[in-house]
Design a protein that fits this description.
The structure holds 2 protein chains of 2 kinds.
Chain A (H helix, E strand, L loop, with lengths): L24 H33 L2 E3 L4 E3 L3 H7 L4 H31 L5 H13 L2 H11 L6 H8 L14 H26 L3 H9 L4 H12 L1 H16 L3 H6 L11 H10 L3 H32 L1
Chain B lengths: L1 E2 L2 H15 L14 E7 L3 H17 L3 E7 L3 H13 L6 E4 L3 H4 L3 H4 L21 E2 L2 E2 L1 E3 L4 E8 H7 L7 H13 L3 E4 L10 H4 L2 H7 L3 H6 L9 H15 L12 H10 L2 E7 L13 H4 E4 L11 E4 L3 E4 L6 H11 L2 H10 L19 H12 L2 E3 L1 H4 L7 H9 L5 H19 L5
Parallel strand pairs in B: 2-3, 2-4, 9-10, 12-14
Antiparallel strand pairs in B: 4-13, 5-6, 7-13, 8-10, 8-11, 8-12
Helix pairs in contact in B: 2-15, 9-11, 11-19, 18-19
Classes of the chains: A mainly alpha, B alpha/beta.
Chain lengths: 310, 433
């Protein structure tokens, strides 16, 4: 770490700190902007143009062959969608459950994996491993594991004498089963963020608790918990946004079913797209964008304020 | 207010597609005069086998034409690929696609080659033409056989329990009671593959039409609804009935089509509301499919009016962008000829009659094909609603899962479907909605 203090020095040429005598003010403005150009073109073509066209096509009846301008009809139709209420409630439930569990489990695992364990490195990899696996692969695997008759989960439960439900085929358990798999897959990332957060807490505080005769619980309650707030903040924001726009796992595991019971806003939008209602589904995407922004901006503000207060 | 935004749409689609697709199609005739036709077809087993049989037999008869096959995924994902490729001019020379309501969404006047009055159609039965016609022009030839939609049942189970083939819904339910008492699942349901849940409703259309002959026209015009037509609500009621009596196979919520077919063939389940066309690929692993599985139309309340709903064969079309029109027409003429159907029969046992003049079912046809032929000979069939009307609500499969799982009462399910249909009619820009 000490090496970095001298600063990077690449190749020959002027050493840092050596002043240029050239009157560069005029050139300086043109030169960096030219460097932005390639990135700006990529940004324009891949991000800005589709975004702007999306806002336009949301106002049309669009079949890919031609489009007819229909004003705000698509927004009205999307809001009149019969299952939007279920989808909206499910989306919120899903986001709250997954981000809540990720915070709790991530924090506990973070504490565990920063303690003096012999297999610490190995266990850290094990926790992080699911993050690296493709979501679709996870969905397919768990669909097989959660099958009512042949799935491993119910077979294991049967050994304990429990008759497991049809996890993904039953309306009561479908959404929560998917949420549980989402937590399994995502908790590794939360843990890593917590490990970084906990590691950055100065040792002095723990020593102070020790001097005052505090127990492990005191160390956790009065030092780790409050001082890892920045990590909590990141985990909540990241997993909440992820939960709000969750789609891939739900689609591979239940397709919003049975019936409409595990539909989320994203899966409703995708179904419109599948049906060939391109304008309508684009309108749904614009709405989702607005909803996520409307929820996350205030959340970000509130959590951010708390962070300053600590 | 209708403006064509093809250029914008094309530009956006091209941007998206160039990264994803390789555009290296060899369109020029080779030095020795061979022409290569590209042919896009479906990816389910029966479609693949049929397409292969057609292509191979055709290449044997026409050594100067080579056919390159590609496959598209099924369902609405495949629909979108077809639409995108047609709208960007990247379509293969010929392709396999649904007939009936889904054809309308392809905008055929702009994208497909018009075959009206062409000798290609000489052998096609007149009855078939309406399902590949739009705006008075004909665009395709039947690619395979007619399929029956109704209830597939295990004949061994029926023999063992001494049951009779039911002609009324009450008789059907009475059979279910006996089957359940014998420890066999009376009705197989596979709601993981959601589309399979629709058959009780879609295959009930023969009964709807028998009760309300003008239903299809009035429905397209927005004059009649499922929720307000008792006969049309019948399908939803059937779904609710079999669930309420606890006749469904165990784990129906997460079972798949393949598992369902297997249960049926092995006799672990007795009835399965399904399409007969899905059976031929099973013959390789379960030869008993040919004899053990029978077909019956969804029973109604009136035994005198018992009949079956049929699905017209999908078609093969020529994209307007083709550079090998002559070769493509030659191929279509072969598909729509007795020689073409013979080639298919040699590879895939037909699950129903062909739509080609002069083609006959072979003597060793599988049982469901024979059962279907009986209905056809009696004149007791009707095409499914999606061949008579351009409207088919996209959420029907979720609604039927919800009704079939007891989550939604049948009347509410029918009302939900009416709303779904209304949305689709508006998106299609139909008059009267």
């Amino acid at each position: 770490m000490t090496k970095q203090q001298t600063g990077p020095r690449m190749g020959p040429g002027a050493a840092p700190g050596q002043r240029h005598t050239r009157p560069a003010a005029r050139h300086r403005s043109a030169y960096p902007y030219a460097l932005y150009l390639p990135a700006a073109v990529v940004y324009l073509v891949i991000f800005l143009v589709p975004t702007v066209t999306a806002f336009y096509f949301a106002l049309t009846r669009w079949t890919l062959f031609d489009s007819t301008f229909v004003g705000l009809d698509n927004f009205r139709d999307f809001l009149a969608e019969q299952n939007l209420r279920i989808g909206f409630a499910n989306t919120i439930v899903y986001a709250v459950v997954t981000s809540g569990l990720k915070v709790v489990l991530g924090l506990l695992l973070g504490v565990l994996l920063t303690s003096r364990l012999r297999l610490r490195g190995f266990l850290r990899s094990v926790v992080f491993f699911p993050v690296l696996v493709s979501t679709v692969a996870v969905g397919i695997t768990f669909s097989a594991l959660l099958r009512p008759d042949t799935g491993l989960v119910n077979k294991a439960l049967a050994l304990a004498g429990i008759d497991g439900p049809d996890w993904l085929g039953d309306a009561n358990t479908a959404l929560l089963s998917v949420a549980a798999v989402d937590v399994w897959k995502g908790v590794g990332l939360a843990t890593v963020i917590y490990i970084a957060g906990i590691m950055s807490i100065p040792r002095d505080y723990y020593q102070a608790v020790a001097v005052d005769g505090g127990t492990a619980w005191h160390r956790f309650r009065h030092v780790t918990l409050p001082l890892s707030w920045p990590a909590t903040y990141s985990v909540i924001i990241l997993s909440f946004i992820g939960g709000l726009r969750s789609f891939d796992l739900i689609w591979t595991m239940t397709r919003g079913g049975p019936g409409f019971t595990s539909d989320t806003i994203a899966s409703i939008i995708y179904k419109q797209y599948q049906a060939g209602f391109f304008g309508l589904s684009t309108a749904g995407n614009v709405l989702l964008f607005i909803i996520v922004t409307a929820i996350v901006l205030p959340l970000n503000y509130v959590l951010g304020k708390r962070q300053v207060a600590v | 207010m209708k403006t064509s935004h093809r250029t914008i749409a094309t530009a956006v689609a091209v941007l998206a597609m160039t990264a994803l697709t390789s555009c290296g199609s060899s369109s020029e005739p080779a030095a020795d005069g061979t022409v290569t036709l590209s042919f896009m077809t479906g990816s389910d087993q029966s479609t693949v086998d049929t397409s292969k049989a057609l292509a191979n037999a055709f290449m044997k008869a026409n050594p100067s034409i080579k056919i390159d096959m590609e496959h598209q995924p099924g369902g609405s994902e495949g629909d979108n690929i077809v639409k995108t490729r047609l709208s960007t001019g990247e379509m293969t020379d010929v392709f396999w696609y649904n007939s009936g309501s889904l054809l309308q969404a392809l905008n055929p006047a702009q994208t497909l080659v018009d075959l009206t009055g062409d000798p290609v159609l000489t052998n096609v039965q007149q009855d078939y033409l309406p399902v590949v016609t739009q705006g008075g022009k004909v665009y395709g030839v039947p690619a395979t056989t007619l399929t029956g939609g109704g209830i597939l049942y295990n004949r061994k189970v029926y023999d063992k329990l001494g049951l009779e083939v039911p002609k009324t819904w009450d008789a059907f339910m009475a059979n279910n009671e006996k089957i359940k008492a014998a420890g066999i699942a009376p009705v197989i349901s596979t709601f993981k593959d959601t589309w399979t849940s629709q058959l009780f409703v879609l295959a009930d259309f023969y009964n709807v039409q028998a009760a309300v002959p003008s239903f299809a026209q009035d429905y397209t015009a927005g004059k009649v609804k499922y929720a307000t037509t008792p006969a049309a609500q019948g399908g939803f009621q059937h779904l609710a009935d079999v669930h309420a009596k606890d006749y469904l196979s165990k784990g129906f919520g997460s079972a798949t089509l393949d598992q369902g077919l297997k249960m049926l063939v092995e006799g672990k389940g007795a009835h399965y509301a399904m399409l007969s066309g899905l059976l031929p690929p099973l013959l390789a692993t379960y030869p008993q499919t040919a004899t053990d599985v029978g077909f019956l139309g969804v029973p109604s309340s009136d035994p005198a009016k018992h009949g079956a709903t049929v699905w017209e064969p999908p078609a093969i079309y020529i994209a307007k962008t083709t550079e090998h029109l002559d070769a493509a027409k030659k191929f279509l003429a072969f598909v729509a000829s007795p020689a073409g159907t013979e080639a298919v029969t040699a590879a895939v046992r037909p699950s129903g009659p062909y739509r080609i003049k002069g083609s006959k079912l072979p003597d060793d046809a599988i049982q469901v094909a024979k059962d279907l032929q009986v209905y056809i000979d009696k004149g007791a069939t009707s095409p499914a609603l999606e061949f008579l009307s351009p409207i088919k609500g996209p959420s029907l499969e979720q609604i039927t899962v919800a009704v079939g799982s007891g989550l939604t009462p049948p009347a509410e399910g029918a009302a939900q479907y009416d709303k779904d249909v209304e949305k689709q009619a508006k998106q299609l820009g139909l008059a009267g909605w």
